[in-house]
Amino acid sequence: MSDRELSGKVALVTGATGGIGAAIARTLGAAGAAVAVVGRRADLGTAVADELDNGLFVPADLTRRESHDEVLGAVLDRFGGLDILVNNAAAYTSGLTHESSEEEFDRVVGLNYKATYFLTQAMLPHLLRGAGGRIVNISSIGTTRSWAGSSIYNSSKAALDNLTRTWAIEYGPEGLRVNGVNPGIVQDGPMSFPVQAAVDIDAHILPTIPARRLATAADVAAATLFLAGPAADYLTESPSPWTAA
Fold first, then answer.
1. What distance in Å separates the CA atoms of residue 245 and residue 238, rounded to the nearest whole number?
2. Helix, strand, or coil (residue 85)
3. Nearest-5° angle of CA 112, CA 36, CA 187?
4. I need a labelling partner for 121 at 20 to 30 A (CA). Which of 94, 174, 203, 207 fits?
5. Closest to 58 in 3D by CA, of 82, 77, 79, 42
6. How does DSSP assign 49-61, residue by residue?
7. CATH number assigned to the domain covering 10-186+216-232
8. Is 153 a catalytic site residue?
9. CA-to-CA distance for 122 and 207, rounded, in angstroms?
């Protein structure tokens, strides 16, 4: 496979101003894609976009519905189309259910689920225009494993996983491939820092991981690159539940 396997493609990465999102933007850019770096932090987003051969920073608060059309307009004005959407933007909260507030619920679910749903809805007509469109949703291992204090975050990511499977079924016949990446604790992912500070990683986490190390943002980016590229043309998140295979 060429190291410029995404040449001629346009990618949009949300939550791309640092951590996992920035690593994904850099990796897709290194593979030849033009990349729209979407996030709230102008200083960080501009720095990431400036590193790329063909990058564009688009500031956005994706919880605002009107921002979705603004982001799309900026991408179309600069690049003329869209081939790859990476839904990475996320918010995290930790707390037992009886301690959780409606404001925290709305903040986390509003970004992790609602904003992702409606941003993708806005992008779909353009992702479906050409052959080989891709959506990659960055989810969490928390969708299949639970722990105390995880009710809001993990359930929002479980909803995202269901969206991934549903979109794969809805749009697979039109050539759009939809997949997800479900990281565990990411060593250099800021969202994981509170967990790393609270848990003895060597004693309690590494023995449960076959590779005996934490994931890195680069690992998540490499998986995203594979799913966004031509090698994953036949791979999509879930066949119909009635498929006998």
1. 11
2. strand
3. 55
4. 94
5. 42
6. HHHSTTEEEEE--
7. 3.40.50.720
8. yes
9. 43
Q: Quick check: 15 and 217 in contact, CB under 8 A?
A: no
- The mean pLDDT of the chain is 89
Contact 119, 39 (CB under 8 A): no
Q: Are 33 and 82 in contact (CB under 8 A)?
A: no
- pLDDT tens-digit series, residues 168-178: 999 999 999 99
* pLDDT tens readout for residues 184-197: 777 766 666 666 66
Domain ranges of the chain: 10-186+216-232
Q: What are the structure tokens assigned to 157, written together?
A: 């990511």
Burial class (CB in 10 A: 0-12, 13-18, 19+), 179: buried
pLDDT at 86 over 50: yes
Whether the model pTM is above 0.85: yes
Of the residues 92, 153, 171, 234, which is catalytic?
Answer: 153
